[in-house]
Amino acid sequence: MPRDILVPQPESSRKLSTPLHSLDMFCTWLAATPLSQTIQSVEWLIPAVQTVHILAVAMVMTSVLMIDLRLIGVGARDQTIAAVAKRFLPFIWWTLPVLLATGATLIIAEPARALENPVFYLKMGLLLAAVTITLACQIPLARNASFWELSAGRKRAARLIASISLPLWVAIIFAGRWIAYIQRT
Predict the structure, then answer these.
(1) For 57-73, what is the mean pLDDT?
(2) Is the dihedral of CA 110, 111, 113, 114 positive or negative?
């Protein structure tokens, strides 16, 4: 016999279960769509999409690393921060839509795996923070190419941005991997 028939549940616990139930129903619906079924049934498709996703992650991480090393003052010291950013920022911004497309494809293939997983939402939050801090580096450079090199205070701020940026992007990778191993409780 269902527990809520024997023991009435407080109104608040019923409200909390409704969004999770709706999410579960959405995931079930999405997994049954022809697009999801096609992605699931074509044997080579998911591995191919995962490969493109991983290569795109590598491209973003390489670009982030090069920019952050320059911001810290360790790498490419013979080039201005603006020159390094101009060279590598396009690889971040042009690759993010590829990650969005491949990630969406993987979600459509197995919606519950991501959408019912708290680590997925952690990853999305980290991504939002990483994009924000990347913009915090880029926007001042668009106004003044020497912005981060004009004073000791700005150089310290650039090092701070890099010291936050790199761990954020690395955490995104870890969260992405953990999605496969941590399930909704």
Answers:
(1) 94
(2) positive
